[in-house]
Amino acid sequence: MQLDRILYTYSESLFLDLKKHLFEKGNELFSFSRLESLNLDEDTLYFIDITSLTTTLSNPGQSTYNAEKFLDTLNFEYRLIIEEPKAETAMRLLKFHIDAIEKFELFSETETIKSNKEDMKIHKKLISNLSDSETSNLLIRLHENLIGHRILKDRLSEEIRKFQFFRKLNEDKILSLFLMGKSGVGKTEIARILHDFLDPDGKLIKINFGNYSSKDALNNLIGSPRGYIGSETGELSEKIKKSQSGLILIDEFEKADEKVFHFFLELLEDGKFTDAQGVEYNLEGYIIIFTSNLDANGFEKIIFPELISRITYICELETLNCYSSVKN
Question: What is the rounded CA–CA span in Å between residue 254 and residue 209?
Fold first, then answer.
């Protein structure tokens, strides 16, 4: 539902500042064109940018009927926002949804801009921050709940302990696992066991490259630059924000393209990434689990050596042929 009938305006030059400001407040900002494709959270206040919608409706022969009808069906809390030069046009076109225009003061704390919900800082549950007793309980759960794969479980326990040690020295940024094997051998189950310990009530952050087209994979992952149709934050950015778990599952990674491979190479090296909207995500202390139906031969043919060298632990579950990156 629309919280008020005010259209908030912003300067185009300050868009990234606005995006960051709303993100830090726990709110979301996205284009009208993305409404149908989003998984919405009832605890989030959404700002819908109608700049592109107004441009489209201004063209000769365009009707406002479908847009107005669609806005009437929205059952989540939202406010409308637009670039300043187009505000008057939008008010004329959508007069049944807009009664007034107000400038969005980026860093104000006015009640008209705040969400009705309390501001809450989300603390990520990271495996690197677990106490010794918590780590022991996690490893016990892994050994009890994952059927078979004794060698894998022993080695993974070692890698987790080693990662925790190096994180304290600020040397390792991300614990990365690459699990290969046929469907049903337990690759995804490992991720679920670890996630359920870290965030039992939350959803697993899962990115499936089998659902991506190779042409737009990176844009879908971290968003496309402003000005592109549907440009906003990508799937990875949105899911990280909504989860308290410091674990990410990347499924069917072999179906990603070279740009995505290079993105993850940089992420594993730096421990952070910046999405297309200029928002930085710090993933230091996270576990990233890549899964693939490749075998060892296919893995070495498709994944380039630089990326392989950055992955902490690699295992083919079917044969339990596992090895780790060597630390200098």
Answer: 8
